[in-house]
């Protein structure tokens, strides 16, 4: 919703112009997608951790109320911090209008500002830590615990852990690689890169994870059903 309608419109047009309001709307949609994806993967990792490492206490620890609370926080936390950062960017006066990317990003807008942007840079770092790095560290920690528990278990237990966690692990790896490429590209001067490579790296984040996640889930579930 945040990327493809505008992208298809640009492909069909000879001029690639976007209004200020539409640009910030695209930033909001894409950034909340990115933040919600990571925090949702974090909640899923916690659910897998309880199921594998504390199976006898799973239903007492993961109640319906707690599950709804975690899902709500996974959505509200990224939306809150991203909204503050984008609002700060909307108040900046701009001395340029050319974005070195195929879609709008907050950092590219901030770089066009005519005034010092130390506060915006600090907010961007805070958003990155809250929505990316903290969930990333938590997911890595939980899966380290899960792998340790599976390693000490029987072959049947290892198979069940593999069957339960593999779709989530693959989705997490794919998304982390795509996110890393996008963050690295945002901080690098795209004009110094090969234009084709810059376009591929910028499109990876908004195309590959959304397409592969449902296909991956369907494929792995089909294998499980066929095996059974």
Description of the structure:
Helix content is 79%, strand content 0%. By secondary structure, the protein is an all-alpha fold. The chain has one domain (19-227): Rhodopsin 7-helix transmembrane proteins (Rhopdopsin 7-helix transmembrane proteins), CATH 1.20.1070.10. Helix 2 runs antiparallel to helix 4 and helix 7 (155-187) runs antiparallel to helix 8. The relative contact order is 0.11.
The description of the largest β-sheet is: none
Order of helices and strands: HHHHHHHH
Poorly predicted regions = 224-228
CATH topology: Rhopdopsin 7-helix transmembrane proteins
Strand content: under 5%
Blueprint of the fold:
Elements: H1 4-11, H2 20-53, H3 58-61, H4 64-90, H5 106-111, H6 118-152, H7 155-187, H8 195-227
Helix pairs in contact: 2-4, 2-6, 2-7, 4-6, 6-7, 7-8
Looking at this protein, list some descriptive labels.
transmembrane helix; 228 residues; mainly alpha; Rhopdopsin 7-helix transmembrane proteins; G-protein coupled receptors family 1 profile domain-containing protein; 8 helices; 79% helix; transducer; 0% strand; disordered C terminus
Give a brief description.
It contains 8 helices and no strands. It is mostly helical and 228 residues long. The longest helix is centred in the middle third of the chain and has 35 residues, at 118-152.
């Amino acid at each position: 919703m945040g990327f493809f309608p505008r992208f298809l419109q640009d492909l069909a047009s000879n001029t690639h112009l976007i209004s200020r309001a539409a640009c910030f709307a695209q930033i909001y949609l894409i950034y909340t997608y990115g933040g919600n994806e990571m925090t949702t993967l974090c909640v899923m990792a916690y659910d897998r951790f309880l199921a594998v490492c504390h199976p006898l206490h799973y239903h007492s620890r993961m109640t319906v109320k707690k599950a709804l609370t975690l899902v709500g926080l996974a959505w509200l936390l990224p939306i809150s911090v991203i909204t503050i950062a984008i609002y700060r960017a909307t108040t900046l006066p701009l001395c340029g209008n050319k974005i070195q990317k195929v879609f709008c990003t907050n950092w590219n807008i901030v770089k066009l500002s005519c005034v010092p942007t130390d506060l915006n840079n600090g907010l961007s770092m805070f958003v990155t830590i809250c929505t990316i790095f903290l969930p990333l560290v938590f997911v890595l920690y939980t899966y380290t615990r899960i792998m340790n528990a599976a390693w000490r278990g029987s072959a049947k237990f290892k198979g069940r852990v593999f069957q339960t966690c593999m779709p989530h692990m693959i989705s997490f790896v794919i998304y982390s690689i795509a996110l890393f490429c996008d963050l690295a590209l945002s901080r690098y001067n795209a004009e110094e890169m090969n234009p084709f490579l810059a376009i591929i790296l910028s499109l990876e984040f908004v195309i590959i994870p959304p397409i592969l996640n449902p296909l991956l889930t369907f494929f792995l579930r089909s294998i499980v059903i066929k095996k059974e």
